[in-house]
Amino acid sequence: MKVTIEDAGPCRKLMHVATTAEEIRADYEDLVALFRKGGKVPGFRKGKAPARVVEAQYGRDLSESAQERLVPRFYREALAEQEITPVSIVGVNEVVFSKTDGLSFDVMIDVPPDFKLPKYMKIAVKQQAVTVSDDDVQKAFDSVMEQQSRFEDEDEGALEDGNLVKLDYKGLCDGTAVKEIAPDAPELDDGVDFWAMLGQREFLPGVDQALLGAHVGDELTAEIVFPDDFTTEALRGKTATYTLNVKARRARQMPEVDEAFLKMFEVTSEAELRQRIKDDIQQNREQQEQSRQKEECGKYLLKKAKFDLPQTVVQQEMEMMVRSMVERIAMQGASRDQIAQQQAQIVETATEASKDRVQLSYILSRIAEEESIAVTEDELKSRLESMAEGYGMTAEKLRSELEKRNAIERMQSDIRDEKTLDFLLENAKIK
Q1: What is the pLDDT of residue 364?
Q2: Domain containing 34: what range?
Q3: CATH (domain of 45)
Q4: Which is nearest to 362 in space by CA: 417, 282, 431?
Q5: Number of C-alpha atoms within 13 angstroms, CB side, residue 6?
Q6: Which of 19, 175, 258, 281 can pair with 23 through a Cys bridge, CB separation 3.0 to 4.6 Å?
Q7: Cα–chain-centroid distance for residue 300?
């Protein structure tokens, strides 16, 4: 086998592989025997046709089968001979098979970058003070109280922010029902016994202001102006008149900070609860500060080590980031039209971020090798259990799903990168 390698771009190689007829003869003869045994040749009983007749009958099929069997084999052998570990196969081309001349083919591959590892011990990192103010504790305490509150019917009194209100509503735009203008959004036309919370995300732009101060039993008329960037395209820039009937009101009732309330949090006093809240905030902010310091270490490494990247790896990372960003934007309530409008910006942001992520991962991988940082089976199992709990499945089921997608190696790589950043921070020069 003859193998030659050419540079074909940043982190890209073109590998030419050529074999002799002798090197492929045994495999080719095996294939001929298989076709002879299973094929049908006119004028001969099954399995009795001479080899030359079988070759004449199934020449193209034999050639294709030989290529399918031999290209992967000699590709692996060529990589081993050249001591190359590719990150991806870009393509296989120029495949030529001949039983008399041998097999030849070209493979375009992306390979890991070759770069000089920068000094990574004693990275200078600035430490930012972590504090928790009384206002921080009060806001968190109010949030706890709100989470434990309940809504009670209060038909007396005016509507105010934070109230739940039950409505019937109907909308007209230039005398035409809103649902006829925007048939894909019938919920914007009329509703019966619809519950809305004032001061939260409005189901119609400006409707909260129209409802504030109203009472149960009131019938209101409100002019709703749809902004130019409204999620429903057919209503953008239009003004509609809505009739609103207030049918019920519920007000939030805060809990009493009594023995039963405190028992839920396993504390004996409000002061103890506030201290626990403060400790939790402190711990969370310390973790955030540690994450920021690790990010600072990463930025230092990215600045000190510049090198070309395998484009297939960057492309895969970019596509994964785009999917993640789109899913996050969709969960925030964006419509398909809004996501489409942001597509160019999403791709641009993901492209830049993916380059940094891939570059940093290669640097951290090299540091991990230098420092013998590895991922244990227990660490992998712990990560799987943690993720599985969030997905509401068993760790075994999650592992099986990830293995189907060949994602376990990616998880191990992520854990190793995290451990390497921990190592760098432990050995950083904190100022």
Answers
A1: 96
A2: 2-110
A3: 3.30.70.1050
A4: 417
A5: 7
A6: 19
A7: 25
